[in-house]
Amino acid sequence: MNLESNPRLTLRQLWHFVVAAEAGTMAEAARRLHMAPSAISMSIAELERIVGADLAIKRRAKGLTLTATGRTVLGQARILLELAGELESLGQGTRASLRGPLTVGCFMSLGPTIIPTMLRAFAEQCPEVEVDFVEGYHADLQQALLDGSIDAAFLYGAEISPSLASAPVTDSELYVLVSNEHALSGADSVSLADIAGEPLVLFDADPISRRILGLFEEAGIAPTVRHRSRSYATVRSLVGSGRGVALLFQQPELEAPYQELRVVLKRLNAPGLLGAAPVPVSVAWPRSTRLNARAQAWVEVASELFAHATPPA
Q1: Could you tell me what percent of the chain has a pLDDT over 70?
Q2: What's the chain's Rg over C-alpha atoms?
Q3: What is the pTM of this model?
């Protein structure tokens, strides 16, 4: 750091610019900040003078349109304002003192088990943080992390982009799902050979579907896929109605009882098959950006709650 430098821009100028950019018009920014539009305009004009470039094109009918420089400054300004907020709260030093929004993502099939447990534990430790969550699939959630629309996400820890950092929080083991009226419903465990001739109901979302099909290939078995679905609930219903069997990566200790669904989970007996190894469930975040204090707390709570992870440094 150049200790002789004396930055001329102020956090207030950055704050005004971020609010205006998010609001879309000076009038709406003025309403949100309880200020006169002219005062905000002057503040942004001074920021543009310091930066040496126009940050936004101002059109009366269309509002503000950020320039390329403006988009860059907006991203950096958000980081600086986030850091300033964290500096202000350093003296308080507890998770209970954290405030503000946090948006997290979760792979669709993990949502029913991970999200309720995490929200309850996180609310106990960070009651003032407003958590919103989105469910999605592997590629969509990774893109959302990279474009900044979510802060962190629970993903299966396979095929995670090198642009993301991650910490494992638990494991999902591979189980066979059969109808409670199936001949194998009373078995202690089930092998791939046991179900080789059964129609398969495939949970059709990467990387899980690729892992399951790869397992059959590794075992030298060509599965007969009768149905495909991207919904765990639909897969379970189809199995319960006798339409086939399914292989699912699950956490049985966190799952609701299955009796009312007319299905039974059986441990897969597949010694020596690499594809049958447990899949880690990880919490991921962009490698290129520093976790804000709320997202850091989310990762730490997940690490403590599921007792497998080492929180990021």
Answers
A1: 88
A2: 25
A3: 0.66
